[in-house]
Amino acid sequence: MDAQVDLLTDKEIEDRLAELPGWSVTDGSLTRTYTFERHLPAAAMVIHVAQIQEELNHHSELTLGYNTLTVAVNTHSAGHAVTALDFTLAHRIEEIATGHGAS
User: Fold this and answer.
1) Residue 24: beta bridge partners?
2) Does residue 45 sit within a domain?
3) What is the pLDDT at residue 7?
4) Hey, is 80 helix, strand or coil?
5) What is the CATH number of the domain that holds 86?
6) Where does the record place a coiled coil (predicted)?
7) Per the domain annotation, does 46 fall within a domain?
8) Could you say which DSSP state residue 37 is in?
9) Which residue of 50, 68, 77, 97 is most buried, as measured by CB atoms within 10 A?
10) Could you read off the pLDDT tens digit of each residue along the chain, which spans 103 residues?
């Protein structure tokens, strides 16, 4: 298996979560909900996240609310487990979040 999709131990997941405030593992997915002042910045971030996902060829579930965006991701090819690839995507999303006014 590719190093990006190798299964992570609970300790590895815990250590990686420490680097991503606001993220957690919920129902088997790496998850975070972002909040925005209005709807349009949340919608714009969806498009930006979609671009990153295409670049990585790794896609999450995105749930757009009025002023929220929830991201939930796991690796289907690894039996829907949380892998390093999910953390790579999460870090990339974090890099763009403040530019969209997300908190």
Assistant:
1) 31
2) yes
3) 85
4) coil
5) 3.30.1360.20
6) none
7) yes
8) S
9) 97
10) 566 777 899 999 999 999 999 999 999 999 999 999 999 999 999 999 999 999 999 999 999 999 999 999 999 999 999 999 999 999 999 999 999 999 9
Residue 58: DSSP 8-state: -
Q: How many DSSP H helices and E strands does the chain contain?
A: 3, 4
Residues ≥6 apart with Cβ < 8 Å to 35: 67, 68, 102, 103
| Amino acid, res. 47 | I
Is the Cβ–Cβ distance between 69 and 34 less than 8 Å? yes
In a domain, residue 2? The reply is: no
Indicate the number of domains in the chain: 1
What is the Cα–Cα distance from 76 to 8, expressed in whole angstroms? 14
Could you tell me if residue 82 is inside a domain?
yes
